[in-house]
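Quick one - inputs below.
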Amino acid sequence: MTTAVNTKTLTLVQAVNDALRTMLKERDDVILLGEDIGKNGGVFRATEGLQAEFGEDRVIDTPLSEAGFTGAAIGMALNGFRPVVEIQFLGFIYPAYEQIMTHAARMRARTMGHFTVPMVIRAPYGAGVRAPEIHSDSTEALFTHMPGMKVICPASPYDAKGLLIAAIEDPDPVLFLEPMRSYRAFREEVPEGKYTVEIGKAKKLREGDDVTVIAWGAMVPVALKAAESAAKKGIHADVIDLRTLYPLDKDMIAASVQKTGRTVIVQEAHATGGLASDIVALINDTSFLYQKAPVARVTGFDVPVPFFAYEDDYLPTPARVLHAIEKTVNF
Amino acid sequence: MTTAVNTKTLTLVQAVNDALRTMLKERDDVILLGEDIGKNGGVFRATEGLQAEFGEDRVIDTPLSEAGFTGAAIGMALNGFRPVVEIQFLGFIYPAYEQIMTHAARMRARTMGHFTVPMVIRAPYGAGVRAPEIHSDSTEALFTHMPGMKVICPASPYDAKGLLIAAIEDPDPVLFLEPMRSYRAFREEVPEGKYTVEIGKAKKLREGDDVTVIAWGAMVPVALKAAESAAKKGIHADVIDLRTLYPLDKDMIAASVQKTGRTVIVQEAHATGGLASDIVALINDTSFLYQKAPVARVTGFDVPVPFFAYEDDYLPTPARVLHAIEKTVNF
Amino acid sequence: MERQFPIRQIMDEQGRIVEHEYRGQITEELVMAMYRHLIRTRTFDRKCVSLQRQGRIGPYVPFEGQEACQVGSALALEDEDWMFPTYRDHGAMMTFGRTLTQTLLYWKGRTEGCIPPQGKKIVPPYVPIATQLPQAAGAAYAEKRKGTKNAVIVYFGDGATSEGDFHEGLNFASVFNAPVVFFNQNNQYAISVPITRQMKSKTIAQKALAYDIPGIRIDGNDIFAVYFHTKQALERARNGEGPTLIEAVTWRYGAHTTSDDPSKYRDQEESKRRRETTDPIMRLERFMQREGFWDENWANDVQERVNAEVEQAVAEMDRYPSANPEDMFDYVFAEPTWTIAEQKQAYMEWKRGMEG
Amino acid sequence: MERQFPIRQIMDEQGRIVEHEYRGQITEELVMAMYRHLIRTRTFDRKCVSLQRQGRIGPYVPFEGQEACQVGSALALEDEDWMFPTYRDHGAMMTFGRTLTQTLLYWKGRTEGCIPPQGKKIVPPYVPIATQLPQAAGAAYAEKRKGTKNAVIVYFGDGATSEGDFHEGLNFASVFNAPVVFFNQNNQYAISVPITRQMKSKTIAQKALAYDIPGIRIDGNDIFAVYFHTKQALERARNGEGPTLIEAVTWRYGAHTTSDDPSKYRDQEESKRRRETTDPIMRLERFMQREGFWDENWANDVQERVNAEVEQAVAEMDRYPSANPEDMFDYVFAEPTWTIAEQKQAYMEWKRGMEG
Ligand SMILES: Cc1ncc(C[n+]2csc(CCOP(=O)(O)OP(=O)(O)O)c2C)c(N)n1
Ligand SMILES: Cc1ncc(C[n+]2csc(CCOP(=O)(O)OP(=O)(O)O)c2C)c(N)n1
Ligand SMILES: [Mg+2]
Ligand SMILES: [Mg+2]
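Output:
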């Protein structure tokens, strides 16, 4: 591959590390906080080497206290810093829910822009890696319903780096969800140095006229596999990787659905209250007259994410998605 | 009014009080916990007189600690009691989010029914009463996405009492949302003694063939007023009061939408991620071919619930609902 | 523990100085400023209660009885310090520079009430109990990292000590030696719940032991005790010696908020008795009389000026342009998302249609 | 504070009794039970690490080094007591009656691993840190309300003390005088974070002062100290004297979990040194030798029986019927909601279609 910029071949978690390193170098106001992110380099090694390089003042091991360090990070953001907080697993973010919901997300609105909270909360999420119980939640919808918070979920190393840098530069709080199942699943060419991927824009991964398949994070490879199988059966899918979960890329979704008239959404989270319902509503609002079939949702079930012995049954699979694609196309 | 049972004319908050009194009498295992619920009788007087009648052991003023007393209530529920916890305002439930999300809602599933958490969390919610800031959230969707939790939201005194008793008798955790705007808005005949209203069943408040209007809690009177105005213009609405938010009454919703082909949903919460999106998805799943127009959602905006000087602009009004009804009918 | 954490006074109930080392620092100028602010806060507070009764503002949170805590601690701050207040600390905020009009707008349900004067680091009041503590610790840590000598004061009540955020905030500040003063106003009630049901410990100050930071218990109705002990704690903070927990024991005379009826849960005779014996303003007056600082004419003049200031603020509030619903949409993000932009456009168009 | 909360021993590193008042209670039966359980837990723990390496179970949380804490405290319980463990306390759970097979199933990602033997009040392990503390306080309060003499023990680590739930749990228990023992295993690390960065306080026991409850610091590798101090705390609880905070100072030799590499954050030489000097099993052996309780044959027999029990449990695990996906749907509510019923039906039908 020859490009104008130098690239490195990185996994998604390495791309996250690279983004953090890039921004720690680029901006003095960037500061990292979290449990085990320093000496240990994070339980997934997302912050590997950063404390050694930038010091204990910029890569801070905090006490085991999600509300405490998230709240403290809000205070730092109010006072000129750009904290990037790591929640060790998304399933452990709930103790900090109050700080995020009431304060991080509302401060700008409450003060008409006088005080702002430019912070990023990073969290690995999702099932599929045989983690112990309660480590596998994918509850992005609890944050997309929270006005004042942007939510990002990259599916690839390139996007992970570009979006994380964009999130750190964003003037508002951003929840940055990292699909732990994709952390080391594949590598990609990632430019060295600083670049951004625009927040709020989805990515078309595959073009097709028969059906729109929408996915994000760890479900993107699942959707892609299903689309490949469908193609072999003569069904050609537009595959959209949302990348940003709030705000959704309305234009790309609407344009695709208006082209295909048929939609399958792949979501890891529980069906009820999931982001997929919002996408159905968005299609209802924008593309009612174009719809040739009901939108199909392939989702996790309305059950707690189970122990790992059951997670292959919980998680949407390419086969389940293919099934939905066929049903939708044959409606 | 002459009926077989004696009735009292009660407001919604009095009906809540009556339900709690009834169950404290009926069952020794019922125990009330919360801030200011004892001597003070609750900041809305929902527990007025109960501590005096049942003692400090059964109506317990707790320390100011939502995670603490919700967690403690979970422990009591594990150990044979039926705690009814009051969160003073729904906007202050977030510190307890972890306890509810990970423990109350999951204990039965995690132990295959060996340990259960039969508890009720009561919380007044919503805007429209000129409360100080951050007292007016209506974030039911954060709980309907939580597997293992039922969510109830009555709109009338009769339903409030019957559903609260049903919730206390339910073997699983229930979030019971009380529309504070309706607490004293009107009175209704409420039977004395014990009766239940079935969880999971909506109520048809008005019959009409032209459009389905779906609302819950404090939005029910708004929807009804709009339906009345519409009727004067010759548009006849089925008006559905959901009453239970999880699980939704799929049958009543589908039957009505299949009759009218047109739907307007009235939701106080923010548009994105709200329960209305789930209802759109449910209609998509059940009634696609019957839909004559896109579902209209009249909702709060994607902004933090504002200070009360702006709440009349934030809240759906009969005029906004009527507008949506007319647009939907004329689609 | 009560013996380990005695309630410290500098001035007793009779207005006598009992800690003589502070004598030299009690200048006439300081005393006059204290008196002026005490009168100003009490006058304003009473005005707000009456405005609420008239329906001219919404539910209001009075602080009468706690003026020495709020004025004394706020006067101890330097200009560049940060203040993290609660819903009850408008006395502290107005002493530190928030305008009366802003305070009135806040209680009138206006977002403008959350904006401090330019350059003033007064964060908007915290409504969810204790959530400000970790944030104050973080803001303080940020000052430390910037290498300034600025400190942070954060207010909270006795009830707030039961929340997890109290614990996490103090622990964070302690571990990172953040320059923050945790200023507790122990008014002995959290709405209706007396401190004896809030905690088994007899003092709040002793909770500092859990974090190996200094804890000190002071008479919150003694403005000198509040002022000097807060100043010392701030000094420690500025000098890199870390956080301090101050428990200022006080009492609110009135209701928790104007929606509350305290007679439901406590004997209001107690408030009367305290007003007669330990009122913070009466106490400073006694001191001033005793020390020959007292001048009836001056005091009348103070009261008159304060009255005029308050009346002017009320007039400003009344004249204030009415709430603009667009504001609800415009400040959620730096750039509105399409969701908000569309909602705003649709709503504003519809509203104009309704009106025109 | 360290002086106020010294680490108490009953037996020193050499296996010598240093608190002679306990002599009479140290019966041969007790010592043999302790020894058996120590060997049993250690053997099982090592087996699990090796099963994980072979990929026969999922990621595993070892507790080697902390056996005296877990066995000693669990043996102090009465049958009717409650246990609220963490993910690291399977040593305590198996001592109190959870079967080895259940523990293995847990680490194999099977829900069955959360079900205690009938009648045993062992709540499933808590993964989100410190969340068990308020629940244990509530369960204890429930016992008090029922008028029983049952008590509750709740386990947590040094890192857990930083969470708000630690504070709220202790405060609740203290205010309501709940019969609960807060048993802290201070193994001095929370994953990679040493206790010195977790808190500024030098002891965890001193945190009891915040709640006016007894706090006690013991040598967690001295099984007699653990056993007798836990028993006393439980006794206090049963007698209506309320909660106790016990800090048992200990050390985990190995990794935080089998996914963790401790050499990244600490010198594993320290673990070696501790193994050689303060190992809990070695210490009891020394005591037994010193006191003439030691019998090599008996010890070999203990080890053999334990090996057999462990092998049998592993065999049971291997024979266990494979995971039934229906279980995922069937226990969310007492009666499945239509959402779950429909999802189950659709999924199971589809799955059968795929298989058939
Ligand atoms: C998290 C949370 N829970 C409950 C409330 C409701 N509430 C408002 S003030 C208050 C009592 C606070 O007592 P205290 O901390 O002593 O402060 P004070 O009001 O006495 O100044 C309560 C329970 C709240 N604002 N936030
Ligand atoms: C709320 C929460 N945050 C983070 C984690 C991830 N985590 C698991 S164990 C652990 C360290 C716990 O340390 P400690 O309390 O000392 O117990 P130990 O593991 O040493 O027994 C962390 C951070 C979690 N399980 N829960
Ligand atoms: Mg108070
Ligand atoms: Mg530890």
